[in-house]
Design goal:
By secondary structure, the protein is an alpha/beta fold. It contains eleven helices and twelve strands.
């Protein structure tokens, strides 16, 4: 597991450092600076998702379902894997950008996409072949006969349909009935947990899986994820939402023991129009708030800090002002934060790393 995580992080860091190297030395790469920054941001977001996934595995975070832009996720995963899989395998994308967002856990859906593409590329082996990844939306009508790989009827409704097919070795019906068993594998080496995890994630999202395969011809895996009734097309999202154009007013007390996080947090808040006061630990935060309680409009409080932790600081601040808006920030122990926010309507939780759009929304609540 450690080796697999290190491999994924090395791939992500290679992307980040490569783009930083080009921008820093001002090389003519054929891409604009904004394009390089966009690739850095995408890679960093994948790293953040990987961290959240491992924290969930360790029982240190809560899985929170949110809106997931499938076409963007598929394109990002395919781009990342293109440089990781063997050069004899090409990935062909046929992605419809009018597919509405689904409700789910982004890192888990990413795991499904990655596992299916990687398995498809490995099925091709050393021969030249193609992995085709398509995404569209379908409607399963009451009169339609639509079943999953176990011949169980799929519920009627609208679905996002992800199809991953390959021109690889394929498998027969005997293998088909066993590929989702834990520890079963047709590979020479491997843990055989990938497809079992894929099926579990799809089931937990209320979806369905279809499998077709012909030996020596190839295989096709079709994932159906239900679309919420209030779904809207992700590509129709207003671009202005992604930028910090609207100016906010107020003063934020930003509390964190990491100097770099204080720096980037202050920069983001300043870009939004806020005035920022920083505190390097919990004791500093409590003292600064005692001195200017009426000046501060909200507090961004790191959860994990030395000397005086976030929970202790929260309670100390509450003794001064029971109604001040406090946003607890953490990339580690979400459960401790949720214990507070579930009992305090003036306390909110924000995952690290900071997402500018989510940061603005939580401060404006």
């Amino acid at each position: 597991m450690a080796g697999g995580i290190a491999h994924d992080f090395n791939n992500i860091l290679t992307v980040i450092l490569g783009h930083c190297y080009i921008v820093k030395d001002d090389y003519d790469s054929g891409m604009t600076v904004n394009e390089h920054v966009g690739m850095i941001e995408s890679a960093a977001n994948r790293a953040a998702d990987l961290c959240r996934q491992m924290l969930a595995y360790a029982g240190r975070s809560s899985q929170v379902h949110s809106k997931v832009n499938l076409w963007l996720l598929v394109e990002e995963v395919a781009t990342m894997l293109t440089s990781a899989i063997k050069k004899n395998v090409s990935i062909h994308l046929d992605v419809r950008r009018d597919v509405p967002e689904v409700t789910g856990e982004s890192s888990q859906i990413q795991q499904v996409i990655m596992n299916l593409i990687i398995n498809a590329s490995e099925a091709i082996g050393d021969l030249y072949g193609t992995v085709t990844v398509s995404l569209d939306k379908i409607v399963v009508a009451p009169s339609t006969s639509c079943v999953d790989f176990m011949d169980t009827d799929i519920a009627e409704g609208e679905y996002a349909r992800l199809v991953v097919s390959d021109t690889g070795c394929g498998f027969d019906d005997t293998v088909k009935m066993r590929i989702f068993e834990p520890f079963f594998t047709t590979k020479f080496a491997g843990r055989g947990l990938g497809m079992s995890a894929v099926l579990g994630i799809i089931n937990s999202h209320g979806g369905a899986l279809q499998v077709q395969s012909v030996p020596l011809v190839g295989s096709t895996f079709t994932v159906l994820l239900p679309l919420p009734k209030d779904s809207y097309t992700a590509s129709q999202m207003q671009n202005s939402e992604l930028y910090l154009e609207a100016i906010s007013i107020g003063t934020i007390l930003l509390v964190d023991d990491e100097e770099e996080l204080l720096s980037i947090g202050s920069a983001l808040l300043n870009a939004m129009g806020y005035t920022v006061i920083t505190a390097v630990n919990g004791r500093d935060a409590v003292e600064q708030y005692r001195q200017r309680p009426r000046e501060i409009d909200a507090i961004l409080l790191d959860l994990i800090m030395p000397e005086m932790g976030g929970v202790e600081t929260y309670h100390a601040l509450r003794t001064i002002d029971p109604e001040q808006r406090i946003v607890i920030c953490s990339g580690y122990d979400a459960d401790a934060a949720h214990e507070i926010t579930s009992q305090d309507s003036n306390a909110l939780f924000l995952n690290k790393p900071y997402d500018p759009v989510k940061l603005r929304r939580v401060l404006q609540k």
